[in-house]
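Researcher: Sequence recovery benchmark, item below. Answer with residues only.
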């Protein structure tokens, strides 16, 4: 006897590919079920991504309605669901999914469970009992800011496995959005898991990894593949073999009709939201990646005004395009500022701040393509500031070098601690080592682009953003800062 697990992960709102995947998965599932097999379908998280306008306009409901149309037996929240969708929207989101939603290591304050999540669930057919639980990354600091406790997933997994074993299941499956390396460690630390279906790290695996008797598998990202994992049991219902393979989603595959209908039901509402006017510009708001520019300055200014800190340091790469004069609609703003990153305030010394700014004005940094850690743009871009003025000269090697920085009206003190307003990406990514060393991190709930949306229309924004913050000197004096 066999159990067939069909699973997808990290779709990230690639909705066209998702509908193609749905058609192929539904066809395979029907064939397996008609042959009398026990078939379960799972989503391993990050089915949505707020970079997609339709997802933003519906706060993810379009994605989960498409998921419900496809029909899944279980879904575990990924970090995109957990960290970018407001917690107050979670109940509606999980309700629309029409399935069992796992948040095994999520807790409310006081160690209370969320009503919208299950810790474990048992699927049963013809006397075969499959126990399932689902884990999401324990990004403690950002979740705590949201009023959510993301528990140690390994501790939660041990409790879930023990619970399932006490309930006499024949097979234990973990739905994991932890990533391949963490899945390996999970298999070592938590025995008796038969299969870990994975996501998060976007691994295009051709076959399962075997660790401590556990099969670990994930088939890529963006609905380019889905997984088919088959578990064979003997007559005593003991696992005798596990196979897993990726199923490629072909570009000429038609859309799944039911998923397409679910998408189209949202279309009128999405258009209404995206066509909403958010500002009117009297002149073009330009963006340049290689130096400061008014649009990037404006982004730094709104964060400086929104958050409490000594100055703001942002990257032009948080923006994708300039804005033209005239009516600015929500769709334009979302296209121009796609990365769903949050504002944070961190503590850096003056020396660390200076090192970061010096790095940010080098071409090999601002010309570098951003990747990972929620980045949804192209190049990382130049570092822009608000609440500070930076003097730059050219050194003997012809490279730009910061001569002096004034925070407010006061020269930068390399020994002093500063509260610097920035964004998650600059802190989490490995590009800027000074930001990686930041201390006393404070999160702000709205996304950076939500702050931009709320403040772009304010009087005086354009004139202020057009005021340069970098002053370029002809040559470097001896030494500099």
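Model:
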């Amino acid at each position: 006897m066999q159990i067939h697990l069909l699973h997808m992960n990290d779709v990230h709102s690639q909705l066209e590919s998702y509908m193609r995947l749905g058609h192929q998965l539904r066809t395979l599932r029907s064939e397996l079920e008609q042959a009398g097999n026990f078939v379960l379908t799972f989503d391993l998280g990050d089915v949505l991504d707020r970079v997609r306008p339709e997802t933003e306009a519906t706060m993810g409901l379009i994605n989960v309605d498409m998921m419900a149309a496809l029909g899944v037996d279980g879904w575990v929240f990924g970090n995109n669901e957990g960290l970018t969708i407001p917690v107050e929207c979670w109940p509606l989101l999980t309700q629309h999914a029409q399935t069992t939603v796992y948040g095994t290591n999520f807790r409310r304050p006081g160690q209370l469970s969320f009503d919208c999540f299950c810790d474990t669930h048992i699927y049963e057919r013809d006397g075969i009992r499959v126990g399932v639980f689902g884990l999401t990354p324990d990004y403690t600091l950002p979740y705590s800011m949201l009023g959510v406790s993301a528990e140690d997933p390994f501790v939660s997994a041990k409790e879930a496995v023990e619970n399932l074993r006490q309930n006499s299941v024949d097979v234990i499956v973990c739905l994991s959005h932890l990533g391949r390396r963490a899945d390996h460690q999970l298999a070592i630390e938590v025995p008796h898991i038969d299969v870990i279906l994975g996501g998060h790290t976007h691994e295009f695996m051709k076959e399962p990894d075997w660790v401590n008797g556990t099969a670990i598998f994930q088939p890529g990202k963006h609905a380019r593949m889905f997984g088919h994992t088959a578990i064979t049991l003997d007559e005593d219902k003991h696992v005798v073999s596990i196979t897993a393979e990726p199923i490629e989603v072909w570009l000429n595959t038609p859309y799944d009709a039911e998923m397409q209908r679910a998408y189209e039901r949202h279309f009128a509402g999405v258009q209404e939201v995206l066509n909403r006017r958010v500002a009117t510009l009297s002149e073009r708001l330009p963006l340049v990646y290689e130096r400061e520019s008014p649009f990037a300055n404006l982004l730094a200014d709104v964060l400086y005004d929104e958050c409490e800190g000594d100055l703001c340091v942002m990257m032009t790469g948080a923006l994708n395009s300039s804005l033209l004069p005239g009516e600015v609609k929500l769709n334009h703003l979302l296209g121009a500022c796609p990365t769903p990153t949050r504002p944070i305030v961190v503590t850096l010394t003056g020396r660390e701040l200076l090192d970061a700014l010096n790095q940010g004005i080098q071409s090999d940094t601002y010309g570098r393509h951003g990747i990972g850690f929620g980045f949804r743009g192209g190049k990382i871009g130049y570092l822009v500031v608000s609440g500070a003025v930076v003097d730059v000269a050219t050194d003997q090697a012809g490279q730009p070098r910061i001569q002096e920085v004034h925070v407010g009206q006061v020269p930068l003190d390399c020994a002093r601690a500063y509260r610097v307003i920035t964004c998650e990406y600059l802190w989490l990514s490995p590009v800027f080592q000074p930001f990686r060393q930041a201390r006393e991190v404070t999160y702000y709930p709205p996304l950076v682009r939500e702050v931009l949306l709320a403040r772009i229309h304010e009087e005086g924004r354009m004139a202020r953003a057009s005021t340069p913050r970098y002053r370029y000197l002809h040559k470097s004096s001896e030494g500099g800062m």
